[in-house]
Design goal:
Helix content is 29%, strand content 26%. It has 439 residues and is α+β, with helices and mostly antiparallel strands. A hairpin with a 2-residue loop joins strand 12 and strand 13.
Length: 439
Amino acid sequence: MSASDSSQAWTAGPGAALRGSIRVPGDKSVSHRAVMLGALAQGVTRVTGFLEGEDTRATARVFEQLGVRIETPSASERIVHGVGLHGLRGSDAPLDCGNAGTGMRLLAGALAGQGFDSVLIGDASLSKRPMRRVTEPLAAMGARIDTVEGGLPPLRIHGGRELRGIEYTLPVASAQVKSALLLAGLYAQGDTVVHEPHPTRDYTERMLAAFGWPIEFSPGYARLSGGHALRATDVAVPADFSSAAFFLVAASVIPGSELLLEAVGMNPRRTGLLSALRLMGADIVEENPRSEGGEPVADLRVRHARLRGVEVPQALVPDMIDEFPALFVAAAVAEGRTVVSGAAELRVKESDRIATMAVGLRALGANIEETPDGAIVDGGALGGGAVESHGDHRIAMSFAVAAQLAAGEVRIGDVANVATSFPGFEELAAKAGMRVGHG
């Protein structure tokens, strides 16, 4: 899709100071898992704050296709009538995960222990994303999953396999791979133990515990055994930190801003960007800390501050992998040099996020040099221009933030996929004071 297609492009910035209070949509990771575990549990699970995005709806549709009744009494609410671990029914038609890498990888684990065959497919973007790092350890557990050449989707999962627990050390830290192994472990004989080189998000572990499954976990480690049951529970989904990230950066860099972000999920494996922005000098205060659905939550008050370039500690990288596009924008307008390293995983997200951000920011006049696993950014002024997001929702929203500080208008191409993670972004951004819209 070219930037000349107005229905798939935004024109953004320069904008006004961000003011007031907003609540961004529900956490995508929690929404996926709430539907999955609710479906596999015994009893009825009520999910509030569910993200009404294309990715999470795709996961819900897959479970409906597998025989689970899911009601939608109102927007952002789901009632999941669980069928138990062994109550899913096979589907003759492929199971379409859309653009959801989380959905596909976690489903691979959950379906590896079923008695029926399944085929997981995705859209053009997801069909280019590597799945071998999930399928290989699942194969070590006894699963049989066929891919196309290069370990790419579709995934053809053969049912009726007896799974056995394994002890596995992830070569690359990934919450999705860890979660797939733990979900397969629900169906396995013996213990499934996962070690990580760096701690990743523990949503699956926390939610398994909330659904009553015995599990031990600590940063970088998880262990569970098969042979138990999931019991339905209500899940209140916190506001998504990754969605809040765009407004954290925007309010930090736009002069005169003071914005309150309500009920943001503060899982410590998600908030690396918060630590990085504070190192750069951001003024972000946590108010009213509390717990919702087993997850830590707080309101975040962010005020404009003069940001300085920093060398981003590699220890923060695994906890901010989805927020790097927003961080690159902060770095592009900060004083001095920002160095990012240890982020090679960005090369294999929805797009090559390092290359896409570097090309786009350079088009706006930024001084950014790619490295194999990161970038070196010298802060300065941004100008107007045209950029491409290459269908990557986080890239598109990051460029919308950059445009608020640009000297002229910025045209952002290929933005349709924003609906996958942040439905209503344009309206919420406009409410806060940003200027972004189709055209």
